[in-house]
Design a protein that fits this description.
Elements (H helix, E strand, L loop, with lengths): L1 H10 L1 H19 L6 E7 L1 E17 L2 E5 L4 E6 L6 E2 L4 E5 L2 H50 L5 H48 L1 E3 L4 E6 L6 E2 L7 E6 L4 E9 L11 E6 L2 E20 L2 E11 L10 E18 L1 H4 L19 H4 L3 E5 L8 E10 L3 E6 L6 E8 L13 E2 L4
Antiparallel strand pairs: 1-19, 2-11, 2-15, 3-10, 4-6, 4-9, 5-8, 6-7, 8-10, 11-14, 12-13, 12-15, 13-14, 15-18, 16-17, 17-18, 19-20
Helix pairs in contact: 3-4
Length: 425
């Protein structure tokens, strides 16, 4: 049989070569490995900054906001400022119609003048009563001396005694009237002072220097201060220093301390990162729909004036930081290759291996075979959202696997298909 085949091959060399090529091609098609439909993506181990952050949102507020009100009711006749007006302490902001208060002042002045006139009359009566008392005292002394010698009867002495007592009572009455007159003057003076104070309050002045951030009245507005003080203006006392009131979830508030550094952005300037510091962690809980949070007060400089009261701040509170640390992407610690691609080293199967006893994390390093990553156990330090510090187990330049990418062609209409598979198991 072999001789026949050999003879045929010699007679037909071309056909023999074609048959051999076909057989080799079929063998290659059978034995070649199937192409993978995915690949592993890796990132390089580097040195750099590792940050642990607490994210929150808050509002930008003026450091000191003063509400300017009025204690006088009436109609606002003049308003001298507008929104964003820069004012100085003592500057006139508005005026309220003083007609009614002026009438009170004049009435109080008249009452004080009347009380003083009454007091003068009472003082005159007091002087007359004292003079009469002195006359009656002398007359009584004479009558008593005569009565002792028998020249005046007992009845005459009693009449002199009665006149003396009446004079004394008149002096006491005059003294009481004088005290009442003095009290009426003090009362009238107090009412006059109150009326004059209300007259001064019809002119609304700025209690401190700053910027008008809210104006609640216009000329012609009637304000009533009967039960509570109505607010007319709001002044941001110093807009070069602002504060952010951030709401931090109860799960994260334990990491926040006074003095920690803060970074935040606002929607108006998404490319600008503002640097601030935690000034206060308020212990009063705020409960909204069964979610408990705590208010954190953050101080920030606003020398360029970009921050305005009421802006929404996207806050990151730095609760931990390491500089020039050996680091890997945090998701590399969670990533696991597909089961068929994992090579369990012989050492991993030995329970007595000290490597198994040490606590730590597991990462997978890229190897010469793209689908045979190397399992590596590492010791970690500070863990952040983006990077985690590694203290031992790997070195700078190593490639750690971070996710799986699908190589399947995606249908043009399949908008929901995922290109990456980050959770291979």
């Amino acid at each position: 049989m072999l001789a026949i085949i050999t003879s045929w091959v010699k007679r037909h060399p071309i056909w023999s070569g074609i048959i051999v090529l076909v057989l080799l091609f079929m063998l290659y098609r059978v034995l070649r490995p199937a192409p993978h439909e995915y690949e592993y993506l890796s990132e390089t181990v580097t040195r750099g900054e590792v940050l642990r952050k607490v994210s929150a949102s808050g509002k930008v507020r003026a450091l000191n906001t003063i509400k300017v009100g009025t204690e006088v009711s009436g109609q606002v006749t003049k308003v001298y400022v507008d929104f964003n007006s820069v004012v100085k302490a003592g500057q006139v902001l508005a005026e309220i119609d003083p007609t009614r208060v002026n009438a009170r002042v004049q009435q109080s002045e008249a009452q004080v003048a009347l009380a003083r006139a009454n007091l003068q009359q009472t003082v005159a009566n007091m002087a007359r009563a004292r003079s009469e008392l002195e006359i009656q005292e002398r007359d009584f002394a004479r009558q008593k001396a005569l009565a002792d010698r028998g020249f005046v009867s007992k009845a005459g002495l009693d009449i002199a005694q009665s006149k003396l007592n009446s004079a004394r009572n008149a002096v006491q009455v005059a003294q009481a009237q004088t005290q009442s007159g003095n009290a009426q003057i003090r009362q009238g003076t107090a009412e006059l002072s109150s009326a004059q104070l209300d007259l001064n309050r019809t002119v609304i002045v700025a209690p401190a220097s700053g910027v008008i951030i809210n104006k609640l009245v216009e000329p012609g507005t009637t304000v009533a201060a009967s039960f509570q003080t109505p607010n007319l203006f709001e002044i941001a006392a110093d807009t070069t220093k602002m504060q952010v009131e951030a709401s931090v979830d109860e799960a994260d508030i334990g990491q926040v301390k006074e003095g920690q550094n803060v970074r935040f952005t606002v929607d108006s300037y998404p490319q600008d990162v503002f640097i601030a510091k935690v000034r206060q962690v308020r212990q009063a809980p705020v409960e909204t729909q069964n979610v408990v949070s705590y208010l954190v007060i953050i101080d920030v400089d606003n020398l360029d004036g970009k921050l305005l009261p009421g802006m929404t701040a996207n806050v990151e509170i730095i609760t931990g930081a390491k500089l020039n640390a050996l680091r890997v992407p945090t998701n590399a610690l969670r990533f696991r290759p597909r089961i068929e691609d994992r090579i369990e080293e012989e050492a991993d199967k030995q329970p007595a291996d000290p490597e198994k006893k040490r606590p730590g994390e597991t990462v997978y390093l890229a190897s010469t075979d793209a689908y045979r990553p190397t399992k590596k156990r590492v010791q970690t330090g500070l863990q952040g959202d983006d990077f985690t510090e590694v203290t031992s187990g790997i070195k700078v330049g190593d490639k750690v696997l971070v996710r799986t990418k699908s190589l399947k062609p995606r249908a043009p209409t399949d908008d929901s298909a995922d290109e990456d598979d980050d959770s291979a198991s």
